[in-house]
Specification:
Number of helices: 3
CATH class: Mainly Alpha
Strand content: under 5%
CATH superfamily: Phosphotransferase system, lactose/cellobiose-type IIA subunit
Shape: elongated
Organism: Oceanobacillus locisalsi
Keywords: Phosphotransferase system, Sugar transport, Transferase, Transport
Number of domains: 1
Helix content: over 70%
Structural class: mainly alpha
Order of helices and strands: HHH
Radius of gyration: 16 Å
Number of strands: 0
Pfam family, one: PTS_IIA
Protein name: PTS lactose/cellobiose transporter subunit IIA
InterPro entries: PTS_IIA_lac/cel, PTS_IIA_lac/cel_sf
CATH topology: Methane Monooxygenase Hydroxylase, Chain G, domain 1
Length: 102
């Protein structure tokens, strides 16, 4: 089975949106906007979950013996998901520091 854009592009799109929203949420935390931060990180997590679901769908294709071609595009897409997870996690950690009561 050949890898086409419909298979890997949703991973990149959802993961990129998650990263963008996590950075925006962190900006809200820097400004001490708790509600803005909470909404932003919640939205980021929704996109991250969507990216993980798309990733799982691809992985299940291999399990059902419908082998997918491993190429630079799928590796790039999987990297986006991993990076989005790390950025969301780090944004949450940094936000805690910014929102900590002094």
């Amino acid at each position: 089975m050949t890898m086409d854009v419909e298979m890997f592009m949703p991973l990149i799109t959802e993961a990129s949106q998650a990263k963008t929203l996590a950075y925006q949420a962190l900006g809200q935390a820097k400004e001490k906007d708790i509600q803005g931060y909470e909404k932003g990180i919640s939205d980021a997590k929704k996109h991250l979950i969507a990216a993980h679901k798309k990733q799982t769908e691809l992985l299940q294709l291999n399990r059902r013996e419908q082998q997918i071609d491993i190429n630079v595009y799928i590796i790039h897409a999987m990297d986006h998901v991993t990076n989005a997870q790390m950025i969301c996690d780090m944004a949450q950690e940094l936000a805690e520091l910014h929102l900590k009561k002094e």
